[in-house]
Amino acid sequence: MKKIDFCKQARGGECAVRIPGICNVNPKTSVLAHYRLVDTCGTGGCKPDDLQGAISCNGCHDAIDRRTKTEYIHHELKLMRAEGVMRTLAIWRREGFV
Predict the structure, then answer these.
(1) Exposed / middle / buried, residue 11 (Cβ in 10 Å: 0-12, 13-18, 19+)
(2) How many domains, the chain?
(3) What pLDDT was estimated at residue 76?
(4) pTM of model > 0.85
């Protein structure tokens, strides 16, 4: 089976995180934003599996990684990132990658 480069697939994709008031809706800025989760190699400097990632514009990615300050609390951002992972998986399922 051919290995898919999900980071490459995320580039230029429609943002799946979609934070209201933050998302710039610019696919030219989209990359894969990984969801770090304890016990899935998501802490301590280890990146999680790419299937635990969401296609994210740079505005949303900066917000969920807390590089920019927003009105949203941590748990709201965490939920929006998780929803983005689910949307990304749905996109990739439709495209035949998963």
Answers:
(1) middle
(2) 1
(3) 97
(4) yes
